[in-house]
Amino acid sequence: MSHPFNVLFLCSGNSARSIMAEAILNKLGAGKFHAYSAGSQPKGRVNPHTMELLQSLGYDTSGFRSKSWNEFAKPGAPPLDFAFTVCDNAAGEVCPVWPGQPMTAHWGVPDPAEAKGSAAEIALALRMRTGCCISALEFSRRCRSEASIG
Description:
The chain contains 4 helices and 4 strands; from the N terminus they run βαβαβαβα. It has helices at residues 17-28, 48-56, 88-91, 119-149; strands at residues 5-11, 33-39, 82-85, 103-106. It has a 4-stranded parallel β-sheet. Helix 1 links the parallel strand 1 and strand 2 (33-39). The protein is globular, with a radius of gyration of 15 Å. The two termini are 14 Å apart.
């Protein structure tokens, strides 16, 4: 492999799920992946509960911001190898044409930003979604590593 795979995680608001997936894959990817995230209708800020959780788990959150997926369709944007929608709303929208003609797929994850209840219940919902993301991305990373060995 001559360069890391560029992966874009898409969600309508780009405030929780796609941000978590970006953080997790960048950490687990160990230089094999470079993850990005964006939204069709970005909220303009990352969900504060998402930021708190990622920070508590040791993720660097300094560069996260809620951004439009149009940034990744412009000239000079990184060529993408994969684009994953992580919410059903974004999966049903017409996406821009991405540079690099990435492989696309939908991976529906319930929205942790919609969690209701006490602070403890919201934190639990976020942790459960994060655990789901970590498990799926770790599985993908291991499959990729095993495929490159054999």
